[in-house]
Design goal:
Nucleotidyltransferase, domain 5; 46% helix; globular; alpha/beta; single chain; 12 helices
Length: 298
């Protein structure tokens, strides 16, 4: 008996589609679109980014339909950038007309709940408190919990796209500009006060999975190899040095991903490293799962 379920996660940088049949993954796809690119702290989605996002959502709706899930039954959610964008309501009304997808802009608390539920699934974790970090394009979510319960959730206003645009841009990186970005990251984590010390630290989303894939030397992305892999503080420092020294084309070649993803990896690596330092951990366990897996398990 089929139990098809489909989820779309519309983030500030990536848009992801997951279709499952019970516990079996039928289709899992991610595209780096940069919907929140050029927004700043408060602004509007750019026309070219909306066009790219709409094209992706059309493709995703068609893929879901092809595999047996009508657009009306796909749960599509949008997060940080969509909470901030002044034209998000108009954009998602157009998405509904064009694709049949009804997009829900979820709260930070709901985002944390779904990310936690999806991110810890299938992870080998020791008994005790677990810290989960999700460095998104618009913000970084930090969640502390145990089992199925979230004890604490903090949203830090330091996203990979936001800080890349604010401080270092998309060309060659000025070390002084990176230092300013890292100072802002430090200041954000200085406000973090965890109720208890975690025994396990998990990182989700594109920065962590991309760096983990490259640290493992994978020729092609392999979710099974990446899920439960380790990304250490030492590895992150090495990646920061390599990405800082590289020009835009070299960054893309070094990590083997699209320009839009490669350009934000440096800030993402800095966020992940500071997260370890601030919580006195030595390494992240990397989860290939995240919010989209939380959606299909609801």
């Amino acid at each position: 008996m089929s139990a098809l379920n489909a989820a779309i996660d519309i983030g500030s940088n990536s848009i992801l589609l997951l279709i499952v049949d019970g516990e079996r993954v039928v289709h899992d796809e991610a595209r780096v679109i940069g919907l929140g690119k050029g927004m700043g702290d408060r602004g509007v989605f750019r026309p070219d980014r909306m066009e790219a996002a709409l094209a992706t959502l059309r493709d995703y709706a068609a893929k879901a339909q092809e595999l047996g899930v009508p657009a009306a039954e796909v749960r599509a959610v949008a997060t940080s950038a969509s909470r901030r964008a002044l034209n998000a309501t108009t954009f998602y009304a157009n998405v509904l007309k064009a694709t049949g997808l009804r997009v829900q802009v979820i709260s930070g608390d709901e985002e944390a709940r779904l990310t936690w539920k999806g991110g810890i699934s299938g992870m080998d974790v020791a008994p005790g408190p677990v810290l989960l970090i999700d460095p998104g394009g618009g913000s970084t979510e930090v969640i502390l919990g145990e089992g199925g319960h979230i004890h604490q959730r903090v949203s830090l206003e330091i996203g990979t796209v936001r800080l890349t645009e604010k401080h270092i841009g998309y060309g060659n990186v000025d070390p002084a500009a990176l230092a300013r970005a890292r100072a802002e990251i430090d200041a954000a984590f200085a406000t973090l006060r965890l109720d208890v010390s975690p025994r396990t630290a998990i990182a989700v989303a594109g920065t962590a999975t991309t760096l983990a894939a490259n640290s493992l030397g994978l020729a092609a992305y392999d979710p099974l190899a990446i899920h439960n892999s380790v990304l250490s503080a030492g590895a992150l420092r090495t990646w920061i040095d390599r990405l800082l020294a590289a020009d835009p084309e070299e960054r893309r070649r070094v990590v083997g991903v699209s320009t839009d993803r490669a350009d934000t990896l440096l800030i993402g690596a800095c966020i992940l490293l500071r997260g370890l330092e601030a919580t006195r951990r030595q390494a992240w366990r990397v989860s290939d799962r995240g919010l989209r897996y939380g959606i299909v398990s609801v």
